[in-house]
Design brief:
Uracil-DNA Glycosylase, subunit E, six-stranded mixed β-sheet, binds uracil
């Protein structure tokens, strides 16, 4: 998909999120928080729901959890300009309560569409609610830091940054888990290289020139 198509489709989703009344969450919010980042991101981070700062700014992970996420990215030499960040629900739940199952279901198609457009190599889930999309019934304390692979993607469950901020005991695990991301990416790149060889002998995507970093 061309960069223009990606940008346009992501903008359409943002418009639909803005107009969405499919669940109660849009009521009493200041802004929708559809998601933000690099339209060619290799990594998509999926959190839970916007908090107060996100609701004010209309952007994901811009409060304390976001600062910690920036710190974690920095540990592997990355910045948020290289990744795409979204949430399971796109409007702030009142008083930061957990999103309800019907709210998650009502919002699911937006996230599914964003993932299909970005087509990342790696989906990093932050906390239980995004983990449940790919690891139903799993316990985060058991599976954090253990990637699951399919033919063209990896799914990597991490603690939520807010949990690590609340409980310093988790920070060691969180930081060790983040540091495995480069090797997981390499593994997925290798898998894709193996499946993208076409009968016409076209170059695999990974041999193409480096991607630019347009942000949506
Ligand atoms: N916590 C989340 O799960 N998402 C945000 O965007 C901010 C905090």
């Amino acid at each position: 998909m061309s960069a223009d198509d990606r940008t346009q489709k992501l903008a359409q989703i943002a418009q639909q999120v803005k107009a969405c009344t499919a669940c109660r969450l849009y009521q009493n919010t200041r802004n929708p928080v559809p998601g933000h980042g690099n339209i060619h991101a290799e990594i998509m981070f999926i959190g839970e729901a916007p908090g107060e700062q996100e609701d004010i700014k209309g952007l994901p992970f811009v409060g304390r959890s976001g600062q910690y996420l920036d710190y974690l990215l920095n540990l592997i030499g990355m910045s948020r300009s290289q990744v795409f960040i979204a949430n399971v629900v796109k409007h702030r739940p009142p008083d930061n309560r957990d999103p309800a199952p019907d709210e998650i279901i009502a919002c699911k198609h937006f996230l599914d569409e964003q993932i299909a457009i970005i087509d990342p190599l790696l989906i990093v889930t932050l906390g239980r609610f995004s983990m449940a999309r790919y690891f139903p019934d799993a316990k985060i304390s058991t599976i954090h830091g253990k990637p699951k692979y399919d033919e063209r993607m990896a799914y990597y469950p991490l603690y939520h940054p807010a949990a690590a901020l609340r409980n310093p005991m988790l920070r060691h695990d969180m930081e060790a888990d983040i540091k495995r991301i480069p090797s997981i990416l390499d593994e997925v790149r290798q898998k894709r290289r193996n499946i993208i060889i076409t009968p016409s002998g076209d170059k695999p995507e990974s041999d193409a020139p480096p991607k630019q970093l347009p942000l949506f």
